[in-house]
Structure formats: C-alpha cells, structure tokens
Amino acid sequence: MSSIAGVILREKLPPFERMLWRACSGNVFLKQAEIELPLEDPLTGEKVYKIVFIIFFQGDQLKSRASKICEGFHATVYPCPESAADRRTMLIDVIQKIEDLETVLTQTQQHRQRILEAAARNLNSWFIRVRKMKAIYHTLNFFDLDVTTKCMIGECWCALSDLDQVNLALCRGMQRSGSTIQPILNAMPTRDQPPTFHRTNKFTVAFQKIVDAYGVAKYREVNPALFTIITFPFLFAVMFGDAGHGLIMFLFALWMVLWEERLISMKIKDELWDTFFGGRYVILLMGAFSIYTGIIYNDVFSKSVNLFGSSWYPDYDKRALVAKDLLQLEPRTSENITEPMFAGQPYPFGVDPVWQISSNKIPFTNSLKMKTSIILAVFHMVFGVSLSFCNDKFFNNSLSIWCEALPQLLFLTSIFGYLVVVIFYKWAAYTADEASTAPSLLLSRCKMCMVTMPSFTSSAHQHVPVQLRCKRRIWGLVLQWTGKNCVIQICFPIF
C-alpha cells in the first residue's frame, strides 16, 4: 500500500476528487481535512484556505496517475514515511525547523524595527537636507563655469534693497565652507525688462495671488493688489449682504488668525483646508464687510432686526385690516388719514424693518441693491481705467494715453457714468408723488442707444429735448473718437 500526501486549495478539492476518481477508476482512497487557519500564498501574498489530503493506492501505475493529477491541480506534495517511527521523527524535525524559523523571523523583525526607529529620528532632518541639496543643485545648474573651471558665474535679478543681504549671505557661505576666495557681486547694466517682483507678507499674499490669477503687472506698474485688499472683500459683501452669515465667516477667519501658529505647526495636508487657511485674512475682511452691508440692508439670516424702532407706525384698527387685503402706508395726512404714519425722520441706519412685512419688499430691495451695485461697479471700473492712465503717464506712452486710456475713460463715463448720473437725478428730482411718472432706467438706457425721444406722462419735466441733444452729442463724440483711435491702435506696430 502506497500513499501521496499534500495540500491543495479548498475550491479545487471537488474537481480534484472527481478527476482522481475517474482517472483511477475508483481504485484509490482519498482522505482530506481542512486547515482552519488561512495560509499566505508565497506568489501573491494573499491569505488562502487550503485542505490537507492523503491518497492511498496500490501499484506504480496508479501512483503515476495520482502524481500527474496532483501536478495538474498545482497541489503541493510532501514526503510521507511508511513507518510510524519515521513519521514521528519527521514531525519532530519539522517542529524544530518551525521553531528555528520563528526565532529567526522574530529577531529579523526586531532588528528591522530598531533600524526603522533609528531612521525615524533623523527622517525629518534627512528630508530637509535632501530638499536643500536638490534646490541647491537645481540652482547651480543655471550657473556657468569660467575659463579656468575653478569658479562659477551666475546672473540673476535681485531687488535693489536686498543687495546688501545677498552680499552678506554670500560671505556667510564662504566662511562656513572654509573658502578663502571672496565672492564678487556686481550690478550689470542691461536693456532687458526686469521681471515683476511684489514683496508680500502673510496678510497681503492672498490678495496678491488673486490679482496674479488674472494677470501680473509689468515692471514698475501700479500693483492693484494694494487696492484689492479693500475692494475685493467690500464688493463681495455688497453681493452677499447678510450680517448673520457674515458674522459666522468673521468668527471662523478670526479663529484661524488667532491660532495660525498652532495650525501651521500641525502641518495639515489637505487641499481644501490649505485654500481656507491661505485666505484667512481675505475671509476675515469679507466677513467684516458682510456684517456692515448686512446691517445696511437690515438682513440677518434673511430676517430684519428692529434695533432703533421703526419710523412707521400704522394706526389701522381691526375692522380696516379685515376689510382690505392690501393697506398702504401714507407718509402724510389725507381725508381718510388724520394722523401721519411716518415719524418724519428715516431709520437711523440701514433699511427700515417695516419693509420685512411689506408685500413689495423684494422689488424695493432689489432696486436698491441693483442701483447701489451699478454705482459701485462704475466707480470701480473708472478707478481701474485711471490706474491704466497713470501707468501710461509714468512710462510716457502717449499713444496708449490718447488712443486707449482716454477713449476707454470717455466711453465708460459717457455710457455708464451717465447712467449713474441718471440714478442720482432720479432719486433727487422725483418725489413720492411723482413715482408713477419717473422714467425707467432700463428703457432710458435702451432709448439712449437708439437715440430716440423718451416719453413722459408728466409735463413738469421740460428737460427732454436737452437730454436728447446731450445724448446725441455724447454718442457722436464717443463713436468718432473711439472709432478713430481704435483704428490707430490696431495699425500701430507692437514690439
């Protein structure tokens, strides 16, 4: 009686058993037992479940067939002695080898752990050294060797105020390296335009990145980031206009500002967090201005707050409220209203809270915010064009002044500046009694472009013909000058 012992994957046992039974015509006896603990596959490293088996048979022919089937199913075959004493001796040897291997593995893991712990203590310093060496060699790649190949020559741009610091840094490097050759730093005359350099700090760096995302100013041009520190968060607040949410933004940014040193030391590696933390001062100003504009709009979490008491005090009784679905507050007395409902003085700061319960709250607030946004936007654009004019004036660029900056300023003030004048005129010239006869800004804008006569239902305003002539003169001047200068600017060669 002969036997073959080995192990095979658990999922391969049923087909293995069928193949063995059919190939050997049922003349073999198969005994198997499952290994409870999973074993690690040496090829893939995954945990797999295996089954140990032993095959009993007679004759060399059955042994050959069983061996080929085991080889075909990738079963691992182990030698199994015939006598019990030999099997016991082999078991003792296997147990001894397992103990020796476990001892070797344990010592190897402990040795590896000691090496990793020793390396972990120096990992940060190694990382810093490698990055410094990489940066140094990357910079040295831009240097050139002189004819003697004993010194290196490099050309770079440097701020004039930093020349002394650069020279001191070179001297310190010479002393630390043990060299006796004094470094030479000379300012070279050149006709090349220097690159733009804006000195920033932790407060201004975020605003500078916002400006650089749209375009970098040329050398010695006005840096708009200085003005963006105020204009960007303020214009955001004009759009946002909620004191409640602005307070949340302000407190969140204030927490990041006060705890910035601790937060920096934590070294949080997250893209979203880096965006918030890098713009903490921007968010701080955005929240502060949002609180200011929210108080002006009287908007706190989309609700009005009655801080100073409303200037309106309606004196309607219950009968009047039941009789009419819509009641209008009158600022003056009439036949039906003997006492005024208006205190005579407006709300001390911002929008009166009575608009919160008004049915025309949305049209009123939208009109207020729209006109305010137009006025601020026009002033913002005029200021931007004025900076462009200052740049051209500084560089003595007469062509850009007469053919670009001034036409832009003329076109902007004639079209949009005129719209701002009309807004202020509408606020000042038309009272509450003439609200129905006040011109529409949208229609006036369209008719201005078409140079047509606006229609008014009131005969009290006799300025319409003068306004029409003014519009025609503005359009004629704008089209004539801007068209001519555009042709000049296009035909002028650019170098």
Layout of secondary structure:
Blueprint: E1 2-9, H1 13-23, E2 29-34, E3 39-40, E4 47-48, E5 50-57, H2 60-72, E6 76-78, H3 84-140, E7 144-145, E8 152-153, H4 163-177, H5 205-214, H6 225-240, H7 243-258, H8 260-266, H9 271-278, H10 280-297, H11 318-323, H12 361-394, H13 398-429, H14 441-450, H15 464-491
Antiparallel strand pairs: 1-5, 1-6, 2-5, 3-4, 7-8
Helix pairs in contact: 1-2, 5-6, 6-10, 6-12, 7-10, 12-13, 13-15
Structural write-up:
With 495 residues, the protein is α+β, with helices and mostly antiparallel strands. Helix 12 (361-394) runs antiparallel to helix 13. Among the domains are: 2-80, Alpha-Beta Plaits; 203-304, no CATH class; 318-454. A four-stranded antiparallel sheet has the order 2-5-1-6, covered by helices on one side. Strand 7 and strand 8 (152-153) form a beta hairpin. Helices cover 57% and strands 7% of the residues. The chain has helices spanning 13-23, 60-72, 84-140, 163-177, 205-214, 225-240, 243-258, 260-266, 271-278, 280-297, 318-323, 361-394, 398-429, 441-450, 464-491, and strands at residues 2-9, 29-34, 39-40, 47-48, 50-57, 76-78, 144-145, 152-153. The chain contains 15 helices and eight strands.
Q: What is the helix fraction of residues, given as a range? A: 55-70%
Low-pLDDT segments, ≥5 res: 456-466, 487-495
Mean pLDDT across all residues, rounded? 84
What gyration radius follows from the Cα positions, in whole Å?
A: 43 Å
Structure summarized in a few sentences:
The chain is α+β, with helices and mostly antiparallel strands and 495 residues long.
